[in-house]
Specification:
By secondary structure, the protein is an alpha+beta fold. It contains five helices and nine strands. The chain folds into two domains: 119 residues, 2-Layer Sandwich (Glycoprotein, Type 4 Pilin), CATH 3.30.700; 72 residues, Hypothetical protein ph0010, domain 2 (Dna Ligase, domain 1). Strand 1 and strand 2 form a beta hairpin.
Length: 207
Protein backbone atom coordinates (compact mmCIF):
# COMPACT_ATOMS: atom_id res chain seq x y z
CA UNK A 1 0.00 0.00 0.00
CA UNK A 2 1.23 3.48 -0.89
CA UNK A 3 0.48 6.25 1.59
CA UNK A 4 0.61 9.96 0.82
CA UNK A 5 1.51 12.61 3.39
CA UNK A 6 -2.20 13.44 3.60
CA UNK A 7 -2.97 9.78 4.35
CA UNK A 8 -0.37 9.72 7.14
CA UNK A 9 -1.77 12.90 8.69
CA UNK A 10 -5.30 11.50 8.57
CA UNK A 11 -4.25 8.20 10.17
CA UNK A 12 -2.28 9.80 13.01
CA UNK A 13 -5.03 12.35 13.64
CA UNK A 14 -7.62 9.57 13.78
CA UNK A 15 -5.49 7.59 16.24
CA UNK A 16 -5.13 10.59 18.56
CA UNK A 17 -8.83 11.42 18.37
CA UNK A 18 -9.71 7.77 19.07
CA UNK A 19 -7.57 7.78 22.21
CA UNK A 20 -8.75 11.20 23.39
CA UNK A 21 -12.45 10.51 22.83
CA UNK A 22 -12.20 7.15 24.59
CA UNK A 23 -10.39 8.51 27.65
CA UNK A 24 -12.10 11.90 27.97
CA UNK A 25 -15.62 11.16 26.73
CA UNK A 26 -15.93 7.39 26.87
CA UNK A 27 -16.93 7.58 23.20
CA UNK A 28 -15.76 5.80 20.08
CA UNK A 29 -14.70 7.82 17.07
CA UNK A 30 -16.06 6.80 13.68
CA UNK A 31 -14.13 6.35 10.45
CA UNK A 32 -14.64 9.50 8.32
CA UNK A 33 -17.12 8.81 5.55
CA UNK A 34 -14.98 10.73 3.06
CA UNK A 35 -11.80 8.82 3.87
CA UNK A 36 -9.96 7.55 0.76
CA UNK A 37 -11.09 4.06 -0.29
CA UNK A 38 -7.58 2.58 -0.07
CA UNK A 39 -7.49 3.41 3.65
CA UNK A 40 -10.53 1.17 4.10
CA UNK A 41 -8.75 -1.87 2.68
CA UNK A 42 -7.74 -4.58 5.13
CA UNK A 43 -4.20 -4.11 6.41
CA UNK A 44 -2.05 -4.97 9.40
CA UNK A 45 -1.16 -2.05 11.66
CA UNK A 46 0.44 -1.30 15.03
CA UNK A 47 0.04 1.82 17.15
CA UNK A 48 2.93 2.71 19.45
CA UNK A 49 2.68 5.30 22.21
CA UNK A 50 5.83 6.88 23.63
CA UNK A 51 5.97 9.12 26.66
CA UNK A 52 8.28 12.02 25.87
CA UNK A 53 10.36 13.45 28.68
CA UNK A 54 12.91 15.99 27.51
CA UNK A 55 14.90 14.34 24.73
CA UNK A 56 14.05 10.82 25.90
CA UNK A 57 11.18 8.59 24.85
CA UNK A 58 9.74 5.78 26.94
CA UNK A 59 7.36 3.14 25.62
CA UNK A 60 3.85 3.71 26.98
CA UNK A 61 1.89 1.15 24.95
CA UNK A 62 2.02 -0.80 21.72
CA UNK A 63 -0.72 -3.00 20.30
CA UNK A 64 -1.85 -3.88 16.82
CA UNK A 65 -2.89 -6.41 14.24
CA UNK A 66 -0.10 -8.36 12.50
CA UNK A 67 -2.46 -9.74 9.87
CA UNK A 68 -4.76 -7.81 7.49
CA UNK A 69 -7.94 -8.75 9.35
CA UNK A 70 -9.66 -5.34 9.49
CA UNK A 71 -10.01 -2.28 7.27
CA UNK A 72 -6.98 -0.10 7.98
CA UNK A 73 -8.75 2.85 9.61
CA UNK A 74 -10.91 0.59 11.78
CA UNK A 75 -7.79 -1.28 12.83
CA UNK A 76 -6.07 2.03 13.66
CA UNK A 77 -8.95 3.05 15.94
CA UNK A 78 -9.00 -0.30 17.75
CA UNK A 79 -5.22 -0.52 18.08
CA UNK A 80 -4.90 3.07 19.30
CA UNK A 81 -7.45 2.59 22.06
CA UNK A 82 -5.96 -0.75 23.07
CA UNK A 83 -2.42 0.67 23.13
CA UNK A 84 -3.66 3.44 25.42
CA UNK A 85 -5.70 1.44 27.90
CA UNK A 86 -5.25 -2.31 27.36
CA UNK A 87 -1.52 -3.00 27.03
CA UNK A 88 -0.96 -5.41 29.96
CA UNK A 89 2.54 -4.02 30.54
CA UNK A 90 1.24 -0.60 31.57
CA UNK A 91 -1.47 1.13 33.55
CA UNK A 92 -4.23 2.64 31.39
CA UNK A 93 -3.29 6.04 29.98
CA UNK A 94 -4.76 8.95 31.92
CA UNK A 95 -6.18 12.18 30.52
CA UNK A 96 -3.36 14.22 32.07
CA UNK A 97 -0.84 12.19 30.02
CA UNK A 98 -2.35 12.98 26.63
CA UNK A 99 -0.16 16.04 26.08
CA UNK A 100 3.05 14.14 26.84
CA UNK A 101 2.47 11.11 24.62
CA UNK A 102 3.71 10.79 21.04
CA UNK A 103 1.91 8.53 18.55
CA UNK A 104 3.66 6.34 16.00
CA UNK A 105 1.93 4.21 13.38
CA UNK A 106 3.34 1.15 11.58
CA UNK A 107 1.34 -0.03 8.56
CA UNK A 108 2.42 -3.59 7.79
CA UNK A 109 2.78 -5.77 4.74
CA UNK A 110 1.31 -9.29 5.17
CA UNK A 111 3.75 -11.55 7.05
CA UNK A 112 5.59 -14.10 4.89
CA UNK A 113 7.14 -17.34 6.12
CA UNK A 114 10.94 -17.26 5.97
CA UNK A 115 11.97 -20.48 4.23
CA UNK A 116 15.47 -21.06 5.54
CA UNK A 117 17.45 -23.38 7.75
CA UNK A 118 18.76 -22.04 11.08
CA UNK A 119 22.15 -21.66 9.42
CA UNK A 120 20.64 -19.61 6.58
CA UNK A 121 18.11 -17.44 8.37
CA UNK A 122 20.55 -14.70 9.40
CA UNK A 123 21.13 -14.00 5.71
CA UNK A 124 17.39 -13.65 5.07
CA UNK A 125 16.78 -10.90 7.64
CA UNK A 126 17.85 -7.28 7.18
CA UNK A 127 17.95 -4.79 10.03
CA UNK A 128 15.97 -1.65 9.18
CA UNK A 129 13.88 -3.45 6.57
CA UNK A 130 12.25 -6.44 8.25
CA UNK A 131 9.98 -6.95 11.21
CA UNK A 132 9.85 -10.47 12.64
CA UNK A 133 7.31 -12.89 14.08
CA UNK A 134 8.50 -16.01 15.92
CA UNK A 135 6.03 -18.87 16.26
CA UNK A 136 6.16 -22.31 17.84
CA UNK A 137 2.99 -24.06 18.90
CA UNK A 138 0.79 -21.57 20.74
CA UNK A 139 3.71 -19.21 21.37
CA UNK A 140 3.93 -16.21 19.09
CA UNK A 141 5.80 -12.91 19.38
CA UNK A 142 6.33 -9.92 17.11
CA UNK A 143 8.90 -7.14 16.94
CA UNK A 144 8.47 -4.20 14.58
CA UNK A 145 11.31 -3.31 12.17
CA UNK A 146 12.17 -0.11 14.05
CA UNK A 147 12.93 -2.01 17.27
CA UNK A 148 16.34 -3.49 16.31
CA UNK A 149 17.32 -0.13 14.80
CA UNK A 150 16.51 1.68 18.05
CA UNK A 151 18.21 -0.99 20.17
CA UNK A 152 21.24 -1.28 17.84
CA UNK A 153 20.88 -5.05 17.57
CA UNK A 154 22.52 -7.24 14.97
CA UNK A 155 20.49 -9.95 13.19
CA UNK A 156 21.24 -12.69 15.73
CA UNK A 157 20.17 -10.43 18.59
CA UNK A 158 17.00 -9.54 16.68
CA UNK A 159 16.17 -13.24 16.28
CA UNK A 160 16.96 -13.88 19.94
CA UNK A 161 14.74 -11.08 21.25
CA UNK A 162 11.90 -12.09 18.95
CA UNK A 163 12.11 -15.57 20.49
CA UNK A 164 11.94 -14.02 23.95
CA UNK A 165 8.94 -11.89 22.91
CA UNK A 166 7.19 -15.14 21.95
CA UNK A 167 7.88 -16.57 25.41
CA UNK A 168 10.47 -18.98 24.05
CA UNK A 169 14.11 -19.60 24.93
CA UNK A 170 16.46 -17.05 23.31
CA UNK A 171 18.18 -19.62 21.09
CA UNK A 172 14.90 -21.04 19.77
CA UNK A 173 15.79 -19.80 16.30
CA UNK A 174 18.15 -22.78 16.07
CA UNK A 175 15.19 -25.11 16.65
CA UNK A 176 13.64 -26.21 13.35
CA UNK A 177 10.21 -26.32 15.03
CA UNK A 178 10.28 -22.52 15.34
CA UNK A 179 8.82 -20.67 12.39
CA UNK A 180 9.79 -17.12 11.52
CA UNK A 181 7.78 -14.69 9.44
CA UNK A 182 9.05 -11.38 8.11
CA UNK A 183 7.17 -8.24 7.14
CA UNK A 184 7.91 -4.66 6.25
CA UNK A 185 6.30 -1.47 7.48
CA UNK A 186 5.57 2.10 6.55
CA UNK A 187 6.40 3.93 9.79
CA UNK A 188 5.31 7.48 10.57
CA UNK A 189 4.16 9.51 13.51
CA UNK A 190 4.22 12.68 15.53
CA UNK A 191 7.49 14.54 15.98
CA UNK A 192 6.79 15.16 19.63
CA UNK A 193 3.36 15.03 21.32
CA UNK A 194 0.75 16.46 18.90
CA UNK A 195 3.65 17.42 16.66
CA UNK A 196 4.08 17.44 12.90
CA UNK A 197 3.67 14.03 11.30
CA UNK A 198 6.92 12.65 9.88
CA UNK A 199 7.93 9.43 8.15
CA UNK A 200 10.72 7.31 9.61
CA UNK A 201 13.38 6.09 7.19
CA UNK A 202 14.62 3.02 9.00
CA UNK A 203 17.15 1.87 6.41
CA UNK A 204 18.94 5.21 6.58
CA UNK A 205 19.02 5.05 10.37
CA UNK A 206 20.48 1.54 10.39
CA UNK A 207 23.32 2.19 7.92
Amino acid sequence: MELSDEDCNLIVGLARKAITDHIVKGARVEVPEDAPPHLKEKCGVFVTLNRVQGKKRYLRGCIGFPEPVKPLLDAVIDAAISAAVSDPRFEPLKEKELDSVEIEISVLTPPELIKATPQEITKKVEIGRDGLIAERGWNRGLLLPQVPVEEKWDVEEFLMYTCLKAGLEPDCWWDTRTKFYSFRAIVFGEDGPKGRVKRRKLLEVSN
